[in-house]
Amino acid sequence: MRQFNISVIGLSGTEKDRGQVGVGKSCLCNRFMRPMADDYFIDHISVLSQSDFSGRIVNNDHFLYWGEVRKTTEEGVEYNFNIIEQTEFMDDSTFQAFKVGKMDPYLKRCTSTKVFSAEKLMYICKNQLGIEKEYEQKVMPDGRLSIDGFVVVFDVSPVPNRSVEKQVEFVQNVIATIIKNKKPLVLVTTKNDDAYELYVREAEKISQRKDYKSTVQLIETSAHESINIDLAFLMLAQMIDKVKNRVKIISYQESAKSRKELLDTRSEAVTRLIRNQITDYHILWSQGSKMLSQYREWNEFLNIFGNEAGQKLFRRHMKKLRDDHLNKKLHQYLDKFALALEYMLPDISALNISDDDAWECARNYLQNHIEFEQYFFECPQASWTELIDMDEAEDETRIPFDVLETSESETVFRNYLNSVQQDKKKIGWKQQFKMLLEESGFVTPGKQLSEVRVLFMGRECFEALSEHDCQQIYDIHQDEIIEKSKQNFVELLLEHAQYFLQFKNVDIITQEDVRQITDVIQEDSRYKMLDRLDQERRVILLQHLRFIHCPIRDHCPFFNNCVDSLIEEVLSDKSASNHKSQGGGWKTTGNGSDRTLNLLIVGSEHLASDLLNDIRICTGSKGEYIYENQTYYLNYRIANGDMEAFKAIDVSSSGLICVYSNQQSFETLKDNLERTLLCNLELEDKFENLPIVLVYQPQDLKENEVEYLRSEGMRLSEMLHCDFIDHTQNHQKYVYDILNIVILSLKLTEMKSYEPYPSNHTDLRILCCIFCGDQYDIENIVQPLVAESMMVKANEHSIIIDVFIGDAKRRVEFILSSYHGTNQYRDELIHGYIYFYSAKRRSSLANLSILAAQNANIPLQIIAVTESGGVNAFFNSDICQFLITEGNALADRFKGSFMTFSADQYIKFAFYNPFLKTAWDNKYEVENLHVEESITLDSGEGTLENSVNQMPRPPPRHESYMLSNTLGTDGSGSENYEMLPTRSLNSLNEERDISLDEIYDDNNEKPKHLHQNCTESDSCASSTERRVRQQNAYYKANKKAATTKKNKKKKVAIPVQTPRVPPFGSYVSPPEIPLHYQRMAGAGGVGVNVIGGPGGAGEKKKSEAGVSEFMKSDKSPEYSMVPDLTNAGIFGAENLPEFNMNAKCLKDFEKLEKRRIKEETARLRKLQEKEKEQEKKLKRKLKQQNAKGITETTEAQFGKLMICSEKDDNIPIFLIKCVEFIEKEGLDSEGIYRVPGSRAHVDMLFQRFEEDPNTVIDVLDIPVNAVATALKDFFSKRLPPLFSKDIIKELEEIAGSRGVGSSKLNVEVKTDRSCRLIALKSLLQKLPPINFAILKYIFQHFVHVSDNSKLNSMDSKNLAICWWPTLIPIDFTDMGHFEQLRPYLEDIVQTMIDQFPYLFCGKDAFVMV
């Protein structure tokens, strides 16, 4: 490595000699020796003090030693440089050069080839002078240096007090001296970043002088910009070393450009680095620089620009981050401000200002707004920009109010102001255009906007709106007029109800029928209005014909507002509110689990107050009482016992506490209670469920008086059916006993209120009919019914009310239904009809006329509902006047009553009392008529079995189907039908095979007893059935059950004697007098002879004084039937005046009854044992059948569903058709077999196949989910089990659900799934051929379904979950047993699907699992 000693020389001396500043020698040396930006110093002064001049840095010399540095050329050659700067130091006192001995002139000194200075230290910067020890100390080697080359500096920047000629002269002299000394040199121009062109040319002239013979190389540099510094020294080193291939001299412009590109690249890299790494404007410089120091880009930037530049860049980035955060926060505030304006200032007219001061007024308005604190907050201590840096403001979601001082917030307000004004104009234009459309008679349903556009051109509203807005409004108007026209067309069809009646029982509608209907209605404007929508008009007509043919809720034209649905909602809401507000409900406090208990304390003088004080002592000042972890808050009230006080009692969640202490207080209390609770009918119902506690507090009485009052109190408590508490016997806790009794009684009342009320225990049944679509509130009709305190909801469509009719209380069931919903009640006993119709709707009266004609022999009341206005509606509207007149005439025609009431009129229950009295008076005739109609239907050609196929279908007829009371039932006969056996009364007396529903129980698993030999006491029936028959007699034998059906586990044939049909209005003798009636008749001298054996059809004969007189003596209007024993009270002597029964006879009769009941109980027990034995026999028989497979008897048992197809291996045709339909329509149906279908559709599908095995499912319009549900029902309910119990046990063992010890299989089979698969195949081969064929067919279908699992989401796992309970029926003992077996049984079915080719098709290759 070569070592070179370089001397840097240039013009020096006093300011007069060198000018105001130097030529840049020190900066050139500094940049070369220490190129890093932080080590580069600009200021290097030459004016020193004497002490600094004599220090070790200057060392009394006029030159500086800059130290040693190593540089490398592009070729990789390294050079060491010792740099000497020749200068001239000035004394700061004389401003003249320091004199050091015999000193040569500067020109001679600077070109000297040797320098001497012992112990001279390296110079770094001017701050080093005087504090040399704080900097690096490096001594000039050997105290002397031989100069190898010179760097001559020529300053090309303009400097005051310096002429270029002086510098040129000096440089030329120096160069001449150096050349003379035969030393290499380089001419370096400095400060080129501030160069003067004239000076640059002078320097070029110097280097190009001929006498230098091209030995002087000119290099342009800039120490400040670090351009070409190393180039100058390396060039000199190569000249000294006499290298031929020297470095290329680059002009200043090219070097400056390259330098700028380098700086830009480094700056961009560092800027990108800071932007990526520093994202939080809270980071300090010390933290940020430490984070950045690990990146190369950052260190290179600092080397070039220095720490100060890096810090500057960092702080600039921090400021940008904070500004961005402020802007982001400001935009968030402005977004919230826009929302706040919409809420707080929806109407800009509230400001009432001009545009100039709008913003100021708006801020004042917002600041004074009542909701100001919801959207804004004020903080006088700091501005919103300062709040952002505070941690306390992070969770604040409101807007600082000083944000509104920014110009951006004003812009938001101005934009909002403009948008509101524009929206107002736009809304106004839209309204005008909408009104224009409504007023125009040319816009009819179905017309396009393009057809009528010419009518609106030139109108401001039309021209101002965009094409999209106009089209949108026009589409809305079209939807409205189309919907209105459709409603009008439906009204037109409903008005012609009489004409459409001919299509009720027509199964097929032909084009000729449609043409005839069209001829009748085509002249009406409501028909013509839909001329452009003929297809939709035709659809409405066909839908109406479907509704006429099958009037159920799903087909109702007002489906969404069908009366049946509205009634369910109203009754549900009203019953819930009644239950809450009446005896069963509790009043809750703010805490939903706490309840309020109201106590009414009754007692004379001070007794009530004393008891109240005791209660307060026990419950505290807040009145809190805890019972069974439930807190009750007590409210108290004291009453003196008079009737007015009792009337004002709020019975809801209340208890009545009555206290007495002596004879006088007892008599007063007893008198008040008897006058209020026992004798007053008005209050009797009100206090029926009120808990009452009678408290005895004796005070200063004799012992015999105490005992007498105690016994009298206990007697009174028995009369009131309340609790009695003796204060003397329970002095310590009597208050707690009182409260516990009240709470427990209220809980029991609340539980009873939830129990279903038996709807068959009613005296009258009234059917209230309301027409769908009538424009009045149904609640006005229902309100007087549900407002009654004794109202009980029987089911979704009926309520039961105890009401006084005449001088006795009767139980009345009100059934609320739509006009079309009355179809389901046509075979039930109805005592009266109430028809409501709208007095402004022709169709309402037209349909009412048809219904009234169908029930002409039953009392009816017609009620016309008018618009608000009462009588004025009659005189002010011609249509109303006409319809009211016609309704009145219709009522007269059918001998009914007619009434009107206004839609906004509140009516009371008394409104219906006159009609209830009429219905009660005609009850006997109506029930006789119902009996005759039932018998007529049961004889000859009119039997239900013959007539069932003649009625419209679907859905099935109500004579052979009964509604199942499920959540989905709508009360209109539209869904959830359950098959019942259909037979006449005559058929009940014959030995026969009963239907499938009588063989099987609810789960269709256990066969029941087929035949019973019935005796005269009806012992073959259950006790419940026998009591019902005794109460309802034979006139209800053929009556359809009520909609609330009770499921019976056992269904057996009940023989009923064939009745004789008497003329209407005459006495009807019962077919068989119950045993207790025979005994009563015998005791009273009435002889009755019963002829006919058990189960026979024998006749009844009575004596001359016989049953006729006895029956006629009964006061009940149902004397043509066997009286209800529970209500008739026949055991009371006062009810049997005809028999003259004394007390002894009555006791004998009661003994006979008890004996008879014991005999019947014993007989029933024997019958039940016989039934169990027969069930066991039938089970054994079925077990034998399962061992043989599906036999030919299944067709006889299960009907035509089991007819098999010979070409498909005797697969049931029902199974084949269902599978083909599902694979055709349902393979892409999501959740097939998992989503259940409608029960009505399922039952209809079974019925159709029972009627015709070749039924085509495609034409039935049945959803695929319903067919899938029917297929599952076929396997679970119609098809005998495919696996016997023995095979099911082997299946459990193969699946691994049983223990190893009890298994017949070896351990290897149980642990290896492949071995278990082989065992499963061998087990399936044990099945009977028919069973195996059916199983193979259904599992092949499962494979097709699972192959499309991407569409239907039913893979083999989901199919196994849905089907294993159906295919592998197991009697589970408990839930634990079920959970234990379930996963194994699922695995069996899934394996049979996944391994179908191997298990069923005999393929050799199978997947090892």
Short description:
With 1409 residues, the chain is an alpha/beta fold. The chain is built from 54 helices and 32 strands.
Which range does the strand content fall in?
5-15%
Number of strands: 32
Q: What's the quaternary structure here?
A: single chain
Radius of gyration: 56 Å
Largest sheet: 7 strands, mixed
Overall mean pLDDT score? 76
Number of helices: 54
Helix percentage: 40-55%
Unreliable stretches (pLDDT < 50, length at least 5) are 580-590, 937-1142, 1187-1199, 1297-1311, 1405-1409
* Helix/strand/pairing category: alpha/beta
Report the span from N to C terminus: 80 Å
Structure characteristics:
single chain; 1409 residues; alpha/beta; seven-stranded mixed sheet; 54 helices; disordered C terminus
Tell me about this structure:
This protein has 1409 residues and is an alpha/beta fold. The chain is built from 54 helices and 32 strands. The strands form nine sheets. Strands 13, 14, 15, 16, 17, 18 and 19 form a seven-stranded mixed sheet that branches. Strands 21-22-23-20-24-25-26 form a seven-stranded mixed sheet, sandwiched between helices. It has a six-stranded mixed sheet with strand order 3-4-1-8-9-10, with helices on both faces. Strand 24, helix 31 (842-854) and strand 25 (860-866) form a beta-alpha-beta unit. Helix 15 (407-439) packs across helix 18 and helix 31 (842-854) packs parallel to helix 33. It is elongated, with a radius of gyration of 56 Å. The model is unreliable at 580-590, 937-1142, 1187-1199, 1297-1311 and 1405-1409 (pLDDT under 50).
